[in-house]
Q: What sequence folds into this?
């Protein structure tokens, strides 16, 4: 049996690449006894499930309700991209609350920082004229539903799969 070939070190990283590879391999070997836990963290921590649920539900509600943005919504979104023409509910508010819920659940400290960030982010949507207050409130409430749905989905996935630990 031949040993796997060692990839060439990237010139930009120089000698640090070898040290990095050795440390990474050692950490990987140390945690081999707990692959199920690590796989569960991978599935829950990458955000794909929450993001997909959020984009689908917010998009669906926007298409159903079709509430236009306020007349005073400036057309100056140069950095951000408006994915739709509808205001209700606020996707920014929904995703911000999802992020805060996740970070609070995993023990991020200080929590006050999270709540300040989500409050300011959500308020900015109204203050910038992008959304109405109800858009932001419903976006936040929708994220509570999404967090519950995500938890339900993960429990189902854990029950159906041998590689997840819940």
A:
């Amino acid at each position: 049996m031949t040993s796997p070939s060692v990839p060439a070190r990237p010139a930009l990283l120089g000698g640090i690449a070898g040290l990095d590879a050795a440390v990474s391999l050692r950490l990987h070997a140390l945690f081999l006894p707990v692959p199920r836990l690590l796989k569960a963290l991978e599935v829950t921590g990458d955000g794909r499930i929450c993001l997909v649920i959020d984009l689908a539900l917010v998009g669906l509600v926007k298409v159903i309700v079709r509430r236009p943005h306020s007349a005073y919504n400036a057309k100056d979104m140069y950095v951000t991209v408006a994915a739709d023409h509808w205001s209700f509910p606020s996707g920014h508010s929904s995703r911000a609350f999802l992020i805060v819920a996740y970070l609070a659940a995993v023990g991020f400290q200080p929590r006050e920082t999270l709540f300040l960030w989500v409050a300011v982010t959500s308020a900015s949507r109204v203050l910038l004229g992008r959304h109405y207050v109800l858009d932001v409130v419903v976006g936040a409430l929708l994220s509570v539903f999404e967090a519950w749905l995500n938890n339900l989905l993960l429990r189902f996935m854990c029950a159906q799969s041998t590689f997840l630990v819940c």
About this structure: The chain is about 65% helix and 0% strand. The CA atoms of residues 31 and 65 lie 49 Å apart. The chain has one domain: 34-160.
